Amino acid sequence: MLRTRSLTSRIMALTATASTFADGTWTNIASTDGNPAGLTSIPGVPADAQWVPNQFNNPVIGPTGIVTFRGQLAGTGLQTTAPNNTHIFVTGNTGGAGLTQIARAGNALPSGLAPGLVCNTTTGINGLGTSQYQCANGATLITGNLNGTGVTTTTSPFWMWRDSTGTNNYIIYRGGDAYPVGTGVTMSVSAGSPQYVNNDGNALVSATLAGTGVVTAAGVTQNNSAVMWMGPSGKTVVIRKGDAAPGFTDGTVFQPDTVGMACNGNNVVLTGKLAAASGITTSNDTVYLTNAWGNGLEIFARKGSPIPGYPTLNFQSLVTATTAPITLAQHPLMNDGSIVFRSSLGGSGATVSLNDSATFSAKNGVFTMLLRKGDSVPGISGLVFSSTGANSVMNNNGMYAYEGILMNADGTSITDPTVGSSFLAVRKANGTVVVLARSLDAIPGIAGATYAGISGSSSVCISDSGVVVFANAFNLGATSNVGIFAWDEVTGLRVIAKSGDTNFTGTPCNQLTLIGGTGVSGNGINTGLNAAGQLVLRAGDSVNSINTIAKIDLGSTPCPADLTGDGVVNGADLAALLGAWGPCSGSCPADLTGDGVVNGADLAALLGAWGNCP
Questions:
Q1: Domains of the chain: total
Q2: Which of 397, 404, 530, 610 has the most CB atoms around its CB within 10 Å?
Q3: Cβ of 598: how many Cβ atoms within 10 Å?
C-alpha cells in the first residue's frame, strides 16, 4: 500500500536508525474533469474557466518539488483563434498544488516586460513554448514568441526568467539581441531551444550569428555560431565557431555542434569538430570538450585517439568510419565532474559485432569502462550484452540505469520469439549489475502480465537517492496496457501506476506519460523525477476525455547520511558534511533535513545514523 510520511517523521527516523524508502500517495495537481476547483482564485483566469482535455504538455518538476506545465482553458473570453487560451502554470514554492499563472498566450508578459507586445507568433498562433525549465532556487525559465508592432520573425522569439516570488522577471533573450563580444553581430536562437539549464537559471545554448565579420562559408574561417550562457545576469560566450581548439597552437579551430551539449552548474560538455588547413580528416576530426576538470576548456576525447587506460582501444567506429564515436548519456555530467558516455570502439582490442562498443565514465582524465558489448549479464545465462538503448542515465552517486539489448555470444541476434531480448538494469557504484526487468518476464503485482519489449520505450530516470522509475508496455490479454514502475534496493521493484487505475481521473485511465531523464531541469538530471525522488507525470482517460497531472514522492534514500556512497556512515561522511557547511547551492546531499542549509541539524542527523547502512 502506498503511504506518506512527513518530513519531520523522516528526520526523526533518521536520527534513530537509517531511514527506508516509502512511496507517498499520488496528488493530482490539475485535472480536466470539469471541476474548476483551484482555478477561480488564480489571477487572470476567468471565473468560469475549465481545463481543455488532451491539452496538457509534459510537466516538469524542479529540484525543490515545484512543478510547471502548459495547459489550455475554456471559458469567457478565451479563444482558440487568435489564441489566448494557453497558459503556463507553476505550483506553489513549497511544491504544493496551488497554482500560479506565469504566462498566457495572447497577453502581455508579466512585470511590464516587452510593453505593447503579446505572447503569440507573428502569424497569430499561440506563442508559448511547450517546454519549461525549473531551477533549484525556485525560478522558472519559459520560452516563446512575441507579436505586435515592429516584430519580425527574427525578433519574435523570447526567453523569460521568473524568480521564485514572481516579482523579479527578466527577458534574458530576445531574437536579434547583440552578440556580447565585439560590435555589429546579432544572435538568433529559436524559442524553446535551450539544451540545458543550470540551477542558477542560466541556459546553455547554441546561437546562430549574423552581421559584421561573420563568415558563413564552410572552412577554417567559418564563425557563424557560438555556444552561449544566457541567464538573469546576462550573456557570456563559452566558445565560438572558429576559435582556437583547446590545446592547439597551429591554427586548428573548433566548430561546435548545435546539439550534443550539457551542463551541471557552470561545467559543460560540448561536442564538435576540428578544422585546419591540413592534418584533419574524417578519421580524427570529432572532439569532445569539458571544463569540469579544472583546466578550462579541454579536449577529453578525440575520434581515432587511444582511450586512456585501455591501450588496445580507441574512439573509432569499426563499421562506419565517418560516424561520431561518442554519444553522451542523458545526464552526462555529474556533480563531481564525471562524464558518462557511450562509445564505439576501434583498435586491435575490438572486433565488429562482438565487443566494439562500451559505456564509460571519465573524471580528471581517468576512464572507467562501465559496460561493454559482449559482457555477460548477471542472472541471464547463454546470452551476452549487446548495447544500451536510447535511454540511459546516471545519478550523482554513481548508479547507472540503462536499457539493454541481448544477443547470442557469437554476436548474432536472438531469433527465438519466446526469449526476452531486452532488459532494464542498474549498475551500482561498486560495479554490481542488477537486472530490474526483462521482456516477457512476469510483472510483480499484476497477475498474468508480462513485459513487452523494453529497449527504446522505458523513459528511464533515476534519483540521487537511488530510485529508478521507468515506463513500459505490458501484455495482459488483448488489451494495450502501460505501467509505471519504480525500483530501489530496499523496497525492490513495484508498480506505482498502470492502465485501469482510477485514482488519477476517477475512471479507468488508459494513458500514462513519463517524461523520463531528458535533462533540462535544474542541473540537468531528469525533468520528470528530481534528485530527491519526487515524480510528476500525465495520466488520462481518453474515453471520458479526462486528463491529470499528478505527483508522488517516491521516498528518501535508505541511507542519506552515507554521503560518500561506501555503505557506511563514518568520518569520511562527516568530513563531506563539514565541507558543505552553510547555505546550499544546487544539489546538496549534505542537507539531510532538506531546509536549504547544512548546519547543526544535519550534523545531528548524520551522527544519529553512524555505522553500517541497512
A1: 2
A2: 530
A3: 24
In whole numbers, what is the pLDDT of the chain averaged over residues?
86
604 in the same domain as 498: no
Residues contacting 99, CB < 8 A, separation 6+: 29, 30, 38, 39, 42, 89, 90, 91, 92
| Nearest residue to 526 via CA among 27, 7, 65 | 65
For 503-556, what is each residue's pLDDT tens digit? 998 999 999 998 865 545 556 566 788 888 889 999 999 999 999 999 999 875
Q: Are 513 and 58 in contact (CB under 8 A)?
A: yes
Residue 553 included in any domain: yes
Q: Which residue has the cell 509534459?
A: 58
Burial of residue 511 (CB within 10 Å: 0-12, 13-18, 19+) is middle
> 572 with 470, same domain?
no
Using DSSP's 3-state secondary structure scheme, residue 504 falls into coil
Cα–Cα distance for residue pair 33/378, rounded to 1 Å:
46
pLDDT bracket for residue 592 (50, 70, 90) = confident
Sign of the Cα torsion 301, 303, 305, 306 reads positive
Asked if 473 and 406 count as a contact pair (C-beta separation under 8 A), the reply is: no
Do residues 175 and 202 touch, judged by C-beta distance below 8 A? no
pLDDT at 357: 95
Compare 291 and 579 and report the one with higher pLDDT: 291
- 76 membership: H or E segment, kind and range: none
**468 pLDDT higher than 50:** yes
The reported pTM is 0.85
CB 188 within 8 A of CB 246: no
